[in-house]
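Deviations from the work plan: none for this task. Representative record:
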Amino acid sequence: MRIRSTFAASVTLGAVALLTTGCLSSGGGGGGGNSNTSKNIEIMYAFTTDQETGFKGEVNKWAKDNGVTVKFTQSSDFNSLINTRVQGNDAPDVALFPQPGIMKDMADQGLLADLSDIVDKSDLDSLIQGAVETGQVNGKQYAIPMSINVKSIVFYPKKAAAAAGLTQPPQTLDDLMALSKKIASTGTTPWCFGIESGAATGWPATDWVENLMLINNGSDVYNQWVQHKIPFNDPKVAETLDQMDQLLLADGMTNGGRKSIASNNFNTAANPMFDNPPGCYMYRQGNFVAKSGGFPDKVLADLDNTVGVFPMPGKTAEDKPVLGGGDLAGIFSQDNQSAKDLVKFLASKDYGTNGYAKTGAWISPRTDFDTSQYPTQVLGSIATFAYESTEFVFDGSDQMPGEVGSGSFWKDMTAWISGQEDAKTALDNIESSWPS
Amino acid sequence: MSGTQAVTATPVQVPKQPTATGSRRSRRLQHDPTARSPLWVRIVLALICAAWVIPTFGLAVTSFRQEDDAQTTGWWTIFTTPANFTRLTFQNYSDVFSQANMGDAFINSLAITIPATVIPILIAAFAGYAFSFMSFPGRDLLLILIVGLLVVPTQVALVPLLKFYGTIGLNGTLPAVWLTHIGFGMPLAVYIIRNYMATLPKEVIESAKIDGASHFQTFWRLILPMSTPVLASFAIFQFLWVWNDLLNALIFAGQNTPLTVALVRLLGQEGQGWQLLTAGGLFTMIVPIVVFLSLQRYFVRGLTAGSVKG
Amino acid sequence: MIKILNALIAVVGGVAGAILLYWLLNKLAELLPGRWEDRVKPYLFLLPALAAIGLYLVYPTIQTFVYSFANNRSTEFVGFENYAKLLTSKTFQNTLFNTFLWILIVPASVIAFGLLIATLADRLRPRGEKTAKTLIFLPLAIGAVSAGAIWKFVYATRPPGQNQIGLLNGIWTAFGGDPVNWLQISTLRFNSLLLMVMLLWMQAGFAMVLLSAAIKGVPTETLEAARLDGAGEGSIFFRIVIPQIRTTIITVFITVLIGVLKTFDIVYVMTNGNFNTNVIAVDFFNQLFTNRNNGFAAAIVVMLLIIMIPVLVFQVRQFRAEEAAR
């Protein structure tokens, strides 16, 4: 048979090739970047539009003053691209990681420079401590925050909410629960809630779970949970879901009812707040919904007068935990002076004062940043929540392995909220999906 | 990497004049060509056509609607609520260019698609010639290898190529993308061109040989001109495939994002809104649709090419 | 603009370079003594094409095979661990199951639709036929990503109480139904079926064109004879037309099947494999880039390759049969 001999030939061919190409990667690798003295550096980041324009303006001014040429590489598929480039020995000099997970991985592989001695101690101390800690691996500082976002914000329609009884921001989680029930008793649903986000549907639900986990248990337990040092389906998580059930999913608590949540887009879920009469009074979401595509344009045009914000309260009035995120700057070119200088600048007091903050597209991670620089009071208040926080943690799902953090966690929370799974099944499923 | 890359896997048995979509019709199954077809046939077909067209039509309509309208009412309401009709706008198109960089993406798409389409043609034509008109040991084996490779999912090649490009510093560049497309498209190119050439009359070659023409001359003067239809149809094939490709672009293009990648971003987690997606989607479709409609005849001939038994 | 210029330079340079290369290769062969010239020349003509195929398909396939036995960063061999872990994971079993559903359902329904349209359109007058076929063929040019944008507006859902902006829910609620989150219904893999509809939408035109050409090739005499014998249109279609165009049907089937196995963009764009819609090609991408596990990714594509082997064997056999008949 001709075919058989063909197969025999290909098998032999394959075997020979196997022997010759059987080598594997030597590990490590990466590196790249420029030589020590180069004044040309490349910086890679994921943010876009206004945030990018403002960033370029700020850095270009610094670059001009210091005689450095900066190449800006934007990638919305940051994680794929940085991975590709590192595998190909072509890492940028400086990277602004949108999620800590991949940064930690690369630090672990020895690809990133230790910034402990590069960034001034006084600057490090001025940054939000929780965000600084997120940049640490094995006690060393591999990345520093250069922008943050805040996720534990509750937005409300100022005038209507006052009429409904929201005169003073709740001080504790119990207060919040009481307020919600009070509003619900008047026949209007207190909460807006939507978790639809196309292929990423479910992530806003994970933010809620993370936020309540943080409030209930504090950052230590929260971090253990995120790092899988306690199981995903720990009783503490089950309690949190139970709480969420009472606060959001019970009858009369969410606009449109439980069934609508999974099909309600997170960007526009808050819009019924601005109807007359409002369909709901409170929406917990990140600062990024207060932009075009989120809140209606007429609300954005008069933000300070229409929208109020308060932080998700702590367990007691003294606790002020904040859930957020941010971009972390790390250096691939371990010895390049210009790269070091740039990161130093990003941590400094001056960074962002040259018009960047005024765009409203960026929030400084420095607690001593002048909040009057922000274009709206709403944004100033949001920044203040972060600066005055007692604990600041990063979005947990971003730090979990991809199978969980952008897989089963989204999926099973959606299934739970839409009533396809009970809470226990959902948590057990997520736990079993955690890669060993 | 979806089904778009229609590969004529095995030779097709079709009549000598592969009827282009409804062009000249020589035979029909029944009925007089000028007679009206039964009503039910026309109704069923009209329904199918409507089902095929309406989704695209909806996208087209939405792309001219204002953001708030698109978010709050269905596109079909412009026909039921005249007020919605009067509020149509070109805003989305200007936004999609200013905010999503569609202009750059368009240029990137062209810069990837043109080399990826043109360069492989000559290479494949030479190989097709060798397979059709020259005899040498191992010919069948090599040909079978190529037929087999038509089936191999190109995903298999991505990681090693990523590493290979990495070592030579090609990742994230436009050539990385179009070179990859050339490599991946080569088996199909060789295969359909060879199938077509095999149907060309052998006598032509023989008489050229007698006249003292070398293979090289025969190829350039005779075979290449005679093969224009199949070369054109492969080009259209490859063009549509590369233009619409997402996977290779995602992996190799880096920040040189072509239209497909730019469009996917608009669909993403914090996408800037549907109204931009619609304008971007429609804009992405324009070039392939124009190419397709104007060259449809060749395309169809390409699908059925080379398998004709005289 | 510079990019366009570069692209044009690449095209001109690439083509000119190729011509020069072949000319050189040809000259090189001509330097050889007569008999050797003829022996070597075919290989020289084939060289560039084979080099491209070797570099882009053969070598990487072998390398991937090797990686599939190594760990997530491809630094250490782990034997069959990747395969064992994947095959025992419930998630991956689901992914495989979905992939098999796509294989079972899509090629068959594409052919059924293609036949239906081809047969019906054949009975229209020429202009009608051309219009109908063009409309149905067009999605093939659109591409899966744009198709994703299009179909978002078919499957979109808004919460009850709000206006629906998706066509399907628009119709559904007009008949009094509650809005349905179409792409999240994984009962009986309903959402996967909806994604398959998209591929059907894109590919039916392709099947229609080939099948239509084949149907027109059935000799009129055969049909007339059958009609004289009193056969009905139905039995003519199933007893005479279908057997006559068998080869074309097989071709279309295999072509669509290959497309189905590689299906990536539809699922990636619409659900990213969430809600139980994952298929093998999307899982590969996510293992590679989201989970950054080279070992799993490689093992997944090797399994995809294994699924392809029967098709490959069939393909080669078919080809040899054709060649023998030529």
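Chain A has two domains: 40-149+323-392, 153-322+396-433.
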